[in-house]
Amino acid sequence: MKPPRPAWWQDLSVSAVVAGFVAVLVGYSSSVAIVFQAAQALGATPAQTASWMWALGLAMGLSCIGLSLHYRLPVLTAWCTPGAALLAATQGVSLAEATGAFIVCAGLIVLAGATRAFERVMDKLPMAVAAALLAGVLTRFGLDAVLSVRSSPGLVLCMALAFLAGRRWWPRFAVPGVLVAGIVVAALQGRLALGAVQWAWAVPVLVMPHFTLAAVVGVALPLFIVTMASQNLPGVAAQRAAGYNIPVSPVTTVTGLVTLVLAPFGAFAINLAAITAAICMSPEAHADPAKRYTAPVMAGIFYTALGLAGGAVVGLLAAFPKELVAAVAGLALLGTIAGGLAVAFKDERHRDAAALTFLVTLSGLSVAGIGAAFWGVVAGGVTLAVQHWRK
Q1: How far is residue 269's CA from residue 83's CA, in Å, rounded to a whole number?
Q2: What's the pTM?
């Protein structure tokens, strides 16, 4: 008989709490505006838009907490940012028709997970290509951190010095130190606008779905393809590059089921996270890899809180300067980027494929509405096929 597992809070650390907070901060601040644009493009009222934030916050929060505690592995979910951009560009579709498309998309995600079709695709992806894909996705955030020096040199350079000092003397608390330093410097510069935040509980608004062929073909299918290719694929790659063998099919199925339940309230697509997940799976989140699951649990708690207070989300996140968010993200991901590149180029047989995967992914290329992560894998796969076919 196995001894009972310790309570999850016994594995918690300050760095895990901060990693969860940073992941949520980066996830929301980098794309919440796109979600609002998507809701407005579909004709959502302010109450319905707040309901979207409620549904998305609960979907991400409950799935992060439930999956991470069940497997005792770091599983972080997110809304589909490319999917939100796709919705923001949609014309001639009502909110009821879009809601029906969300439900169809969720059903397709459940099907992809339950049949293990998506997992079989991921199992054929070499580790070098997966690591290069992750590095390509994350390097953009490192570049944004560097480029933010142009608009706010004092803030970003102080945060960089705090990071270097932390890595030298307090490695486990380097990222918390960066966040604290950024908040203090921004406050001294008068750039924190916390007084403008209006706290209010979000109220869920049910939208009855209306199923039409046009919405299924024009919204549901593209949303499903974008979610799987641009989000779930790099999400699994991030997990494997970090050394975690998380069951792909059950987790994918759960994200589809959560989307299915909350779609009538505005949860358009929930998927595995890659960028924010890397923050929670890095050594900065916890010194012990077996205890890093607590970072996504904390992220789930923060997601849930922000979902319940959906009306205040935009004001809260707008209180932080964008340079602060960019610097925190870039510095928190530095170790993961370096590790991904080291793994990607370690094996000489796969080096060309890894290099092309990295460059195409980093380019931000988008073709037919599908993001660079998918095309990076295509480039790497074609390279492998040409170089190693029947070798």
Answers
A1: 7
A2: 0.74
